[in-house]
């Protein structure tokens, strides 16, 4: 069996194309989310170790200026410049039409750090005053502040993670210089996160929902961000080895690795689900009449057991009974890495899946077998390989979802390090 090859040069060219030429038309609907696309592009080149060599200082300064242009005067960042109607026309009454956005704020800050900015132009106090306003009474976070300061959107674990991440980035080690700035309600946030653990151990978007790897990553990411600022003084059972919550979570995460790759081209079958017409109803009635469980079971085809051959490629899914998908190689391994249990996965199977099944000929990674590359799956494919020590990739901080170099840069900033003197 030949060794799977990581085509680093092609990935560099893929990310540079995304940075310096137009993105394909399919990205049009993501226009209001440009900061996220910028994050994947800049972070991808940084992870590949070429951000400094393949862009000029002037270009990087231009990217920094664009991010600051997305900062709203009252604190936080918008996801693109399309809602900006100018500071001179902005009033307290109309600012809800150009709101700061919780995920965009987190990504804007991380991009600035990747680009080497010291965050000195970030409206730190304003942003940290805005953040608690985004928290709902159940402890979760919304996405934007609407008319009448109403919290709108969000409510699931993604927004909890970005809010906790923003707090971590801006509060600094000991919240120096933030006297009188009210913090978010950490206890309530932790209680909300814990309430999202499903019966099978995974984390769901809300209480009593289905466990999902993306939300699981966000739950643990949020707890890690909170923990980094609490100096380990508060133990949360979800991230405490030995607790029932922790052990069932690990079991659920490890069980997401699968050799079911969905290679057969049967993806279109879902699209046929339109509103039921008369014919559909009749067919359904006949089908129900014929329903005989024993007979149906006898007619099921045999499921071939996995073989040594089929187990060579083992990606990850995000929910039970789903096929593997490149991004879940990230959501699951990143979470296991944060929990100190990454060695429990079949790293060789994951590598083989990513490099031989979803790594694309032109660079980047597709979502599944044979799919074209896109920015999200390309970045997450690289990050999952980085966790496993792939040659040519820098090491990644799983919570920040950027290189350890980025975290070190944050921790080196004088205002972040400052400790309270008493
Ligand atoms: Zn995906």
TrEMBL record:
Cofactor entry: Zn(2+)
UniProtKB keywords: Metal-binding, Prenyltransferase, Repeat, Transferase, Zinc
Annotated InterPro entries: PGGT1B-like (IPR045089), Prenyltrans (IPR001330), Terpenoid_cyclase/PrenylTrfase (IPR008930)
One Pfam family named in its UniProt record: Prenyltrans
Keyword Isomerase: no
Provenance organism: Aspergillus cavernicola
Domain of life: Eukaryota
Domain Prenyltransferase alpha-alpha toroid: from-to ranges: 6-401
PANTHER family: GERANYLGERANYL TRANSFERASE TYPE BETA SUBUNIT, GERANYLGERANYL TRANSFERASE TYPE-1 SUBUNIT BETA
Region of interest: Disordered: 260-280
Name assigned to this protein: Terpenoid cyclases/protein prenyltransferase alpha-alpha toroid
Keyword field contains Nucleus: no
Family as reported in the entry's similarity comment: Belongs to the protein prenyltransferase subunit beta family.
Bias (Acidic residues) ranges: 261-280
């Amino acid at each position: 069996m030949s060794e799977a090859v990581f085509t680093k040069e092609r990935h560099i060219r893929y990310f540079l194309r995304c940075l310096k030429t137009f993105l394909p038309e399919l990205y049009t609907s993501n226009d209001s989310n440009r900061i996220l696309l910028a994050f994947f592009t800049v972070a991808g080149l940084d992870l590949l170790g070429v951000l400094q060599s393949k862009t000029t200082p002037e270009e990087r300064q231009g990217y920094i200026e664009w991010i600051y242009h997305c900062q709203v005067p009252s604190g936080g960042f918008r996801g693109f410049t399309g809602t900006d109607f100018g500071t001179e026309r902005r009033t307290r009454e109309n600012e809800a039409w150009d709101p700061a956005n919780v995920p965009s704020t987190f990504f804007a800050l991380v991009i600035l750090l990747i680009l080497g900015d010291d965050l000195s132009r970030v409206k730190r106090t304003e942003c940290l005053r805005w953040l608690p306003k985004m928290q709902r009474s159940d402890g979760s976070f919304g996405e934007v502040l609407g008319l009448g300061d109403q919290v709108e959107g969000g409510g699931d674990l993604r927004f909890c993670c970005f809010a906790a991440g923003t707090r971590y980035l801006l509060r600094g080690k000991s919240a120096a210089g933030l006297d009188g700035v009210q913090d978010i309600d950490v206890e309530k946030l932790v209680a909300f996160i814990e309430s999202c653990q499903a019966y099978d151990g995974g984390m769901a978007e809300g209480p009593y929902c289905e466990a999902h790897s993306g939300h699981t990553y966000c739950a643990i990411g949020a707890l890690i961000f909170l923990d980094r600022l609490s100096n380990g003084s508060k133990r949360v059972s979800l991230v405490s080895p030995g607790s029932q919550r922790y052990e069932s979570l690990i079991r659920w995460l490890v069980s997401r690795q699968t050799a079911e790759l969905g290679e057969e081209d049967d993806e279109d079958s879902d699209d046929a689900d339109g509103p039921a017409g008369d014919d559909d109803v009749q067919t359904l009635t006949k089908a129900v009449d014929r329903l005989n469980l024993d007979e149906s079971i006898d007619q099921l085809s045999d499921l071939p057991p996995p073989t040594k051959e089929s187990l060579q490629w083992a990606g990850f899914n995000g929910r039970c009974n789903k096929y593997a998908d490149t991004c879940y190689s990230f959501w699951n391994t990143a979470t296991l890495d944060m929990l100190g249990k990454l060695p429990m996965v079949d790293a060789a199977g994951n590598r083989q899946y990513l490099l031989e099944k979803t790594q694309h000929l032109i660079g980047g990674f597709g979502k599944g077998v044979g799919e074209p590359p896109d920015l999200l799956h390309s970045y997450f494919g690289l990050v999952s390989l980085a966790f496993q020590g792939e040659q040519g990739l820098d090491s990644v901080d799983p919570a920040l979802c950027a290189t350890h170099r980025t975290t070190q840069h944050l921790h080196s900033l004088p205002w972040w390090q400052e400790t309270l003197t008493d």
